[in-house]
């Protein structure tokens, strides 16, 4: 398996430090607001990595944090804590806000069929670990204390190591570009220095005791401290959105380097951003669409509601390192494509097997084609998780299945078995796609039972030559999007294409 490493700016073979174990850390949500499409993209991108590593037989410990303290406005160290602001506005305990939005995040990710990580640590539950790491940075001489706050000395670090190794930023340019108009900046030796620990102002609710007085940790510190606690001083993969490369991940590298004497991980992976009509998506731009709005269709930019699986499929149809532009047309196309794919899964399960005696040139050719598709699908996934190419090859399988269904080119038992295994592994397990046109699998069984019951009533009507009733039942089912197919063995049903 080859993955693109942001750190080396090239594709590299994936070689875990301690096979078959893989440790991966992904920056999770800041729980002060509802999840939007950007959250879905990051969660789904790393969900595919998680699922694919498991498919390849690795034992993966996937850590994704919940930021419930310390993430400050404008990524500066001096703005007002977003979570506190929300708590004040809504007259709630900060923990109440964090719990509410953590639950919301889980609900939305469950709907998108994103597997939950192995460990989901909260920043507020790991204050001791963060204090310990800040102390280590101080002991190593790369941090300093001013008025109860601890700052990381970026210039000193850069003199020995390389601040900018991940993001490609150059310290001198950062220094000349930094505006010094932020309150509290004067405490720092240098405007690019970042807080490991901040002294709490009297009105600050979330505060903890530390060797430097009462305060709270800086945002970058939590990921370094929790990654180390659960994955060790050096682990395999660290992931997150591209917007986190700088300053968040750059600062994580610096903190871990001085505290542990080594960089935190071998591979850095970043998913690209979502744009809306070519423009960056963002709350401040007014074009940010919440996931719930996608599912209900209640947003001025949305032409309709989209099922969570349509949104998931839409995201997977772009490579995680490419930008993904939202438009209704693109989502509608994804919705249609997903329907075709899932219909083929259903069709495949109903295909009558062709006995070996009937094996012909065409059947043998299809067998070769089916095995070729399997190789191409997994070849694409092995190539830096290229989901759009993998999906394109899955549609080659859809064409084979539909041709067999239309009795043009029959598939042998072997080809059917090969494609069933491919669909189960690639579509269900790795891409995590499921038919969510029904509310749940329990409902799916009920729905199937009900439709079969109606079809039995129709059979009975036809048996007593009441063809008017038979036709009416079929037409009404068709109007509901259920296609009825009469065969010698009886009637079957499927969703209308
Ligand atoms: Zn992080």
Short description:
This protein is α/β, with parallel strands linked by helices and 497 residues long. It has helices at 37-55, 82-89, 94-111, 127-139, 154-160, 171-177, 219-231, 245-260, 291-296, 308-316, 328-350, 361-382, 387-405, 413-430, 441-463, 467-479; strands at residues 2-5, 10-13, 21-26, 59-64, 143-146, 149-152, 194-199, 215-217, 235-241, 265-271, 274-276, 279-280, 324-326, 482-487, 490-495. It is 47% helix and 14% strand.
Describe this structure in words.
The chain has three domains: 2-271, Rossmann fold (3-Layer(aba) Sandwich), CATH 3.40.50.620; 279-430, Isoleucyl-tRNA Synthetase, Domain 1, CATH 1.10.730; 444-495, no CATH class. It is built from 16 helices and 15 strands. The model is unreliable at 72-79 (pLDDT under 50). It has 497 residues and is an alpha/beta fold. It is 47% helix and 14% strand. The strands form five sheets. The protein has a four-stranded parallel beta sheet with strand order 4-3-9-10, sandwiched between helices. It binds zinc ion (ZN).
Rounded to the nearest angstrom, the radius of gyration is 27 Å
* Coarse morphology: elongated
Q: Which structural class is indicated by helix and strand composition?
A: alpha/beta
> Which class of the largest domain in CATH terms?
Alpha Beta
Question: Helix content range of the residues, please?
Answer: 40-55%
CATH homologous superfamily identity of the largest domain: HUPs
Global mean pLDDT: 90
How do the strands of the widest beta sheet line up side by side?
Answer: 4-3-9-10
Terminal-residue CA separation: 36 Å
Bound molecules: zinc ion
Sheet having the most strands: 4 strands, parallel
Quantity of strands, as a count: 15
Give the amount of beta strand, in percent.
5-15%
CATH topology of the largest domain: Rossmann fold
Q: So how many helices?
A: 16
Low-confidence runs (pLDDT<50, min 5 residues)? 72-79
Q: What is the total number of structural domains? A: 3
